[in-house]
Design brief:
Strand order of the largest sheet: 2-3-1-4-5-6-7-9
Number of strands: 10
Helix content: 25-40%
Strand content: 15-25%
Oligomer: single chain
Mean pLDDT: 88
Structural class: alpha/beta
Distance between the termini: 29 Å
Number of helices: 8
Low-confidence stretches: 55-64, 69-74, 258-270
Largest sheet: 8 strands, mixed
């Protein structure tokens, strides 16, 4: 049976190190890549419930090359980006180039009109934010993102950017994430930050809440599900809004995330 092209795609970018020119270890030994597999599965479940097909997850996310396929079908395509190197490596910004290569390959495969959301954790979120200017990208969901103050934001213009960060993160700064949402909004992006109280950088504490809200955000930004209403309101804030105005509390504002289908009890219609 001939499969129809996907209607939307998610590229998943795992975390890494500040420096490291060696390739990531293979398969499940690549712990940052393995950490993202529950998010891939959560996306698949939510997509099936929403009527957007997604294929089974692949454990491989570590070989050099644009991306490893983790799902294909008539609906949502989910892929994990492969890194050639474990680290960001200063001005080399290696994961950024890997993300762009994966987007270019996806564009060649599926065409210019495929909407893509980049889902990144830590270093992978930094790469996702940097690569968001690619023509396929509609939005970025960054989990515990690494957001150095000097990183550019102009590439985020006309993109939806939602950053999710624990208030107890000791490896990356939630304050830097909040600052980036304000800088990016002034540059023309639509931004929001969600605080996970009591979480951690590895997203192990409160893992089900991380998974549910991430699936809701990704599908909502792609128009394959309903975006939580408080997130939609934050994304609609004017460029002059303060960073705190676009910052939500997962428990107080979103009811600890979203339901099992990736929808919040209070939701707005799909954005696209």
């Amino acid at each position: 049976m001939v499969q129809r092209p996907p209607s939307a795609a998610v590229l998943v970018l795992h975390g890494g190190r500040e420096t490291g020119t060696e390739p990531p270890p293979p398969g499940l030994l690549n712990l940052p890549g393995t950490r993202m597999l529950p998010f891939v599965r959560a996306l698949e479940r939510a997509a099936r419930t929403a009527g957007t097909g997604a294929g089974p997850a692949s454990a491989s996310a570590s070989s050099a090359g644009p991306a490893s396929a983790t799902g294909a079908g008539s609906g949502l395509l989910v892929r994990q980006v492969r890194y050639g190197h474990r680290g960001w490596n200063g001005d080399r910004a290696d994961p950024f180039h890997d993300a762009v290569a994966a987007l270019d390959a996806l564009r060649e495969e599926a065409g210019d009109e495929l909407p893509v959301v980049l889902l990144g954790h830590s270093m992978g979120a930094r790469a996702a934010l940097r690569a968001a200017g690619h023509p396929l990208v509609r939005g970025v969901v960054g989990l515990a993102p690494w957001c150095p103050p000097g990183d550019p934001v102009t590439q985020l213009a006309d993109r939806d950017v939602v950053l999710v960060h624990s208030n107890r993160d000791r490896l990356t700064s939630p304050q830097a994430s909040q600052s980036l949402t304000a800088r990016a909004r002034r540059a023309g992006a639509r931004t929001c930050m969600i605080t996970v109280r009591g979480g951690d950088h590895a997203m192990i504490r409160r893992a089900p809440a991380w998974h549910r809200v991430t699936a809701a955000l990704v599908l909502g930004l792609l128009g394959s599900g309903s975006l939580p209403a408080p997130v939609g309101a934050a994304l609609a804030l004017p460029a002059t809004a303060e960073a705190t105005e676009g910052t939500l509390d997962l428990d107080l504002d979103l009811g600890a995330g979203a339901g099992p289908a990736g929808r919040s009890p209070t939701a707005v219609p799909p954005r696209r």
